[in-house]
Amino acid sequence: MRIRTTREQHILRFKTTLRWMIYYLLIFISFIIMTSGTLYKPILLVPLAVGIAVNNNIYASAVTGAICGFLIDICCGKLFGYNAVILTVFCIAANLVFELYLKDRFINYFIITAAAAFLQCWLDYKFYYQIWDYEHVGRIFRKVSMKVWLYTVISSVFVFLVLKLVNRLLMPREHLTIEEAINTNIQTENRR
Amino acid sequence: MRDFLKSTRFKILLGFLAFLVGIMIYAVTKGGYSVSGASFINTITKPFRAASNGISMKMEGTVDKLSNADKYYEENQKLKKQIGELNAQLTEYDAIKAEVEELRKFVSIKEEHEDYMLSQPCGVLGYVTNDPFKSFTIDKGSADGILVNCPVVTAEGLVGITVEVSEHVSTVRTILSPDLSVAAMASSSSADQGIIEGNVLSSESGQTKLIHVPKKNKLKRGDLMITTGTSGLFPKDYPIGTILDIGLDSNGLSVCADIQPCVDVTRLTSVIVITDFSGKKEEDKDED
């Protein structure tokens, strides 16, 4: 890889800082949305945490997952740290899966988010309702958990678009050497 | 000139003037009512005068607008600002009015139950996200004398109990929750007792359930259920809700009833916490 000039390094640092500031601003806005009103709402922080995790390094993903999890615990009145643990695991897993097996495509993100959100809702139902064996407890899964999961999956489309925009503008791109650029070009020509 | 003064023309004019003066004097004697001639003229000329006046006013208005445009613009801006200020004052007034009404209700609680130690009115910060039993957080905590397991009420009735208390925020579990059981009796007869406990089905419609009522009872629709105060968690004789429907429990051994809480717990803006009352559980006092 080409050695970056000092100016390029400064720009890179500035963009990275700005990107993370926007990520956390989005997290804050999602938290505010989640805490307002009395209707059932999507757990916006799940698609947001997963979306951030798939495009960044594993440590940052884990920390973001934990922070989003803590915020979910606060607004959903759950045991402090419960969702933090779950979301940290999800974020690390999503990061690894995207790094090793999947490409950065919408459909992949959508499937991963849907799975993560489902697991989060299911675990929430298991630990907070079913375990206590309330009468007609199944209704909570059908009428609350599934509704929230559906809302979360739908909201993930918008979250993806916002994150895509932020990443397109502020995510540093890999610099190619002339040789690498030529090789890439040759490979593309060959494919055609 | 001398010729004119001696002429008939002058005499006619003088006579005419005298006639006019005479009319004037006559008009004075009418005490404010117009003489018939004037009235006739007024009637005849009225539409023409109205039309002419209208045109002239319009023209004057147009000229005025053009000549005083700057002045009017400034005045308009000033008035707009004034309206904004008045609207803000009105909003503030409405908020204060609502607050005063709310406080008046809370004062009535203290008047009715002198043994209660009440917290300051607590604003509802928000409902716990996606909680089917409508738990909520309030803006007062341990710094305001609130402890865990303090009853939360409004002037209308019981709302729930504090379950998590931090310095400035507390979480309230409502009577819709299956995790909160309140011993209750009918206000008409203390013999008819049962437990009011939330239920998944009932909570969907903002109701709760009265369970474990003996088969032999005199409960009927519309009966008001109040707290018994036996547990020491809730004060005695505080309204909870009214009976909507009565039926047999699923086990067939006891009677249950649907209860419509006195308070719509899904739309609360402020509540009050009873921090102490006579008959409160001793354990809590020891913990203090």
Automatic annotation (TrEMBL), chain A:
A Pfam match: MreD
Compartments (UniProt record): Cell membrane
Keywords (alphabetical) are: Cell membrane, Cell shape, Membrane, Transmembrane, Transmembrane helix
Q: Which GO terms describe its cellular component?
A: plasma membrane
Q: Does the keyword Transmembrane helix apply?
A: yes
One Gene Ontology BP term is: regulation of cell shape
Residue ranges annotated as transmembrane are: 21-40, 46-72, 79-101, 107-127, 148-166
Principal localization reads: membrane
Superkingdom, taxonomy of origin? Bacteria
Q: How does it sit in the membrane?
A: Multi-pass membrane protein
- Give the family, as the similarity comment puts it: Belongs to the MreD family.
Put simply, this protein is called Rod shape-determining protein MreD
Automatic annotation (TrEMBL), chain B:
Name of the protein this chain belongs to: Cell shape-determining protein MreC
Pfam families from the xrefs? Answer: MreC
Where does the record place the Rod shape-determining protein MreC beta-barrel core domain?
Answer: 127-274
Entry similarity comment = Belongs to the MreC family.
Q: Which residues form a coiled coil?
A: 69-96
UniProt key word NADP: no
In terms of domain of life, where is this protein from? Bacteria
> What lineage does the source organism belong to?
Bacteria, Bacillati, Bacillota, Clostridia, Eubacteriales
Q: Which InterPro entries match?
A: Cell/Rod_1 (IPR042177), Cell/Rod_MreC_2 (IPR042175), MreC (IPR007221), MreC_beta-barrel_core (IPR055342)
Tell me the keywords, alphabetical order. Cell shape, Coiled coil
A GO cellular component entry from the record = plasma membrane
Q: What is this protein for, i.e. what is its function?
A: Involved in formation and maintenance of cell shape.
Which segment of the chain is annotated as a signal peptide? none
Mind telling me which NCBIfam families this protein's record contains?
mreC (TIGR00219)
Q: Which GO terms describe its biological process?
A: regulation of cell shape
